[in-house]
Amino acid sequence: MSKLGAAVVVAGFVLVAVLGVRAMMAGQVRTEKLPAPVVDEHSAAGAGTTGHTETAVFAGGCFWGVQTTFERIKGVEKTWAGYSGGSKDTANYAAVSSETTGHAESVKVVFDPQTISYGTLLRVFFSVVHDPTQLNRQGPDVGTSYRSAIFYTSPEQEKIAKAYIAQLDAAKAFPRKIVTQVVPLDAFYEAEEYHQDYAEKNPGNPYIQVCDIPKVHALQAQFPELFQDYKGK
To answer: Nearest-CA neighbor of 56 among 188, 168, 163, 179?
Structure first.
């Protein structure tokens, strides 16, 4: 993100040119999707019909890339970039960037469970949104605000998330153990307006091109049945 500075951006381009995006992202973008969760919400009849919505909150590094990926999933109705894990008083970009607030850069996802299940969102989260084996970082972004976390909003979400992590670890889906936190959502605080839809508004930003566009491409390649175009709010 912007606080990385011009030097890191330039270094990122050098790494991409020499080693390729996958090496630079240190495993954030997989080439194949993960298996579906064994434990999931019950399939609802009448997919696509109007009904109640659910809310999920995910943290997986810089919220720009997390948001732009989830926005392109069928059944996702709305997203917000924001902060979770700390207090209201410190829920601002300057404070969170100090890595002293307890907040993680997070994305709130409102979705239609008639169209997509919570378990399927988790599958995408672990497959293409981020690398869940990186502790307190994602690629070039380092700090607890970039940690991998699932902030569950119901006991069912907690059960599904913990079961899926156990399933992936047992199958050795990743070369290292998953470090994703599964914790209750105390509060979600929306980030500043300029962070909302940042990737859509700034497609030429070097960070977006290097770190986030590959996630969108991976979503489209691995989950074409879930992919939808998104033109911004």
So the answer is: 188
> Which of 44-53, 108-117, 203-212 has the lowest average pLDDT?
44-53
Beta-bridged to residue 151, according to DSSP, are: 57, 183
User: How confident is the model over 111-160, as pLDDT tens digits?
Assistant: 999 999 999 999 999 999 999 999 999 999 999 999 999 999 999 999 99
CATH of the domain at 173: 3.30.1060.10
Burial status of residue 31 (CB atoms within 10 A of its CB: 0-12, 13-18, 19 or more): exposed
Residue 159 inside a domain? The answer is: yes
Angle between helices 63-70 and 213-222 (to 10 degrees): 30
| Contact indicator for 55, 153 with CB cutoff of 8 Å | yes
Look up tokens 């850069």; give the residue.
105
Please give the positions annotated as active site: 62
Torsion over CA of 68, 73, 78 and 82, rounded to 10 degrees? Answer: -40
Choose among 186, 48, 41: nearest CA to 121: 41
Q: How many domains does the chain have?
A: 1
Domain span at 54: 2-42+50-222
Q: Look up residue 131 and give its two tokens.
A: 């690398």
